[in-house]
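Budget justification aside, the reviewers requested a transparent look at the raw inputs and outputs of the sequence design task funded under Objective 1. We therefore reproduce one unedited record. The lines immediately below are the structure tokens for a 353-residue chain.
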């Protein structure tokens, strides 16, 4: 039977290893804690270890969410996993999470909307619930960005070594400094379950504009070339994303307030009726600008970018877990999810918790 509504019954997150403060990055490229914090609001982040993939991080987050939900993994009817850093080119990481949880046979879907993934994932969950295709859905956002970082001296970054890196290695890292300081690794997971009460997605406005795809993309490793990975691509640093930070900043501070106002107008509610604005954590300056445009007090837009950096698809689920466990997020609230990701994908969703 299709659900009347659905709610989050369990949340969890996981970040790998010890936090890496900004000062450690200053050991492998020309930067500083002051430079990074002023431009992004980030103080530290976490990195996946060698051999640790998005499915491993996602599995640990999922187990915490399942434990919080007080259900058996076998009760899960469907897995939706979002990542732009999968364990393999194929198969997708969702299947690996299902295997790790010991639930073979449960359908597992991978989606790729990068930092905008929570919005698209929520719409998929909404469809699964309202069509009656699933009663309990596990959503996971997980990222292992360490694989595209522009340095090779990982022991220096993790604090296991104190040597000076070579001038050549520093120069290679410096070429991607503005991007490298932003990203961290981690995963968040949410367990959704059908309910008889009015809960779930109220209204959503999401968009995609592929004309801006190269504002943030990875030039190497795609199937436009034969073979899809050429031997000189590593030397050309083609595995590292290219980012037009100014274009993305302008896009975000323009489109996100527009989407927020539009979704409220369609739902017939005011911005003042929103209890919490759960925004993707890409850059503190972006979120401050959006918050001011929406006239929302600081306490209604919780932030954690200072501790995690940008964990892409993991960001909003990690934030939801934190505000849920802290008691800030309560059932019955009307909350708004805001996000923009490479593609470009963006939008806003009103949800009744």
């Amino acid at each position: 039977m299709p659900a009347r509504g659905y709610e989050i019954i369990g949340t969890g997150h996981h970040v790998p290893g010890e936090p890496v403060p900004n000062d450690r990055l200053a050991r492998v490229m020309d930067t500083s804690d002051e430079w990074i914090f002023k431009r992004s609001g980030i103080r530290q982040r976490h990195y996946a270890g060698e051999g640790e993939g998005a499915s491993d991080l996602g599995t640990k987050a999922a187990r915490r969410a399942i434990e919080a939900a007080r259900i058996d993994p076998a009760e899960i009817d469907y897995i939706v996993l979002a990542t732009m850093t999968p364990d393999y080119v194929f198969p997708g990481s969702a299947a690996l999470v299902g295997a790790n949880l010991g639930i073979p046979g449960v359908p597992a879907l991978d989606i790729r909307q990068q930092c905008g993934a929570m919005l698209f994932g929520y719409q998929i969950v909404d469809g699964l619930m309202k069509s009656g295709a699933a009663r309990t859905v596990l959503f996971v956002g997980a990222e292992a960005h360490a694989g595209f970082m522009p340095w090779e001296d990982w022991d220096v970054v993790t604090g296991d070594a104190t040597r000076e890196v070579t001038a050549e290695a520093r120069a290679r890292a410096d070429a991607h400094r503005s991007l490298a300081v932003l990203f961290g690794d981690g995963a968040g997971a949410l367990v959704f379950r059908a309910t008889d009460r009015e809960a779930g997605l109220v209204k959503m406005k999401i968009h995609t504009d592929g004309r801006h795809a190269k504002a943030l993309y990875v030039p190497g490793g795609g199937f436009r070339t034969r073979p899809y990975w050429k031997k000189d691509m590593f030397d050309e640093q083609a595995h590292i994303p290219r980012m037009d930070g100014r274009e993305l900043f302008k896009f975000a501070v323009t489109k996100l307030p527009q989407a927020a106002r539009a979704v409220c107008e369609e739902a017939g509610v005011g911005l003042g009726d929103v209890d919490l604005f759960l925004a993707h954590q890409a850059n503190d300056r972006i979120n401050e600008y959006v918050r001011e445009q929406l006239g929302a007090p600081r306490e209604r837009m919780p932030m954690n970018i200072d501790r995690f950096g940008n964990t892409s698809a993991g960001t909003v689920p990690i934030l939801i877990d934190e505000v849920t466990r802290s008691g800030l997020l309560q059932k019955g609230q009307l909350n708004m999810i805001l996000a923009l990701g490479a593609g470009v994908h963006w939008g806003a969703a009103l949800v009744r918790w």
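The first strand starts at residue 5 and ends at 14. The chain has a mean pLDDT of 97. Computational costs for records of this kind are itemized in the attached budget.
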